[in-house]
Amino acid sequence: MMNGPRLIEVRQRVLKQNDLLARALRERFRRAGVCVISLVSSPGSGKTAFLERTLGEFVRRYSVAALVGDLATENDAQRLRRSGARVQQIATGTVCHLDAAMIERALEDWSLEELDFLFIENVGNLVCPASYDLGEELRLVLMSVTEGEDKPLKYPTIFNTADVAVITKLDLAAAVEFDLEAAKAQIHAVRPGMRIFEVSAKSGVGLAECWRYLEARRLSSA
Amino acid sequence: MMNGPRLIEVRQRVLKQNDLLARALRERFRRAGVCVISLVSSPGSGKTAFLERTLGEFVRRYSVAALVGDLATENDAQRLRRSGARVQQIATGTVCHLDAAMIERALEDWSLEELDFLFIENVGNLVCPASYDLGEELRLVLMSVTEGEDKPLKYPTIFNTADVAVITKLDLAAAVEFDLEAAKAQIHAVRPGMRIFEVSAKSGVGLAECWRYLEARRLSSA
Q1: Structurally, how many domains does chain B consist of?
Q2: CB A163, CB A196: distance < 8 Å
Q3: Closest CB to A124 among B126, B144, B172
Q4: Which residue of B has its CA nearest to A6?
Q5: Is the confidence at residue B221, as pLDDT, over 90?
Q6: Do A96 and B125 touch (CB under 8 A)?
Q7: What's the whole-model pTM score?
Q8: Under 8 Å between Cβ of B46 and B144
């Protein structure tokens, strides 16, 4: 994201193009009956660990797949494939977010009708992904207890464009003296009433409740 | 940062403009005899905590000031002002990085000649700040042990544009089973020979060594 009047003008056109493509994707996902859930967060907030546990659980009962975005490396895809789910890496090069065109390209030869859930892990970035609709049904914003309680007020846009907040690495909360109530208050200051889950991918705490919510969401949108 | 041919073209012009302005700033900093050090990292990697300790120490022996970038809030400036140093917040709105023009505007009525050190804390973002030269003498990239060892390979550009890496939150290394040697190997895979400091702003470990390096850097560039 940049500044200057010329750039803003071009950027608005790019975003409009992305919105149109995302709308077409959303319609395609709906027709195929696949529930598409995206994950955004800072680098290192635990998106991949959360997804690893979630795929491992969901693969037993659903047909589930994932797209994972990073500037470089296939690390996350390799790690997530161990779950048995179909996983494809999207390497963005120098681009700091996924966009709808990247999602469309990655899904070119996929039969979406066979899927119940598709997860999309965005590039680790708490700013730019906010502007790009990917056609997802649900957007989760993750923040780890190690990042501090103040991130929602400092990065309000991404919390505003997400549907659900997931506080991660709860097992470290005591070690970093994390104030859970303060964090929730900050999330709700930016986005009143936002649904918040508190989880640890390491200990497993909170995951089952979050998974039930995702499963219910799929049924309600079908 | 975005894609599409029109956008890339406009972006290159913006970056070129920024480079020219950054060059002028660097010359201005050099003439004034102020050592300018910028900090980049993910949100929540501990830039502000590191800066808080550093300002608190440096203010006793130097004339020191800081600019802090965030999308929104004055929180960091308020927190850092307790050190006694002059601190100014730059609120970027929706812009995901600082640029040279923002630095120039923020310093408009400052007498740089009175300063020994000026710290610039960038917006928390491990991607976009890489492209924007701010005229700094030294760029520190921080990564916390809680983010995992793999960030350098996943975000190579920011490690390539930084001069020094600082591994933060060392007090949590055991709790997150952080592999320090693996992290260093990854940093050096991206940037061979890069100077690495390992610190904890909480326990204080490693800070003195890092500070000695910054002080020596100022003298060698004077």
Answers
A1: 1
A2: no
A3: B126
A4: B10
A5: no
A6: yes
A7: 0.92
A8: yes
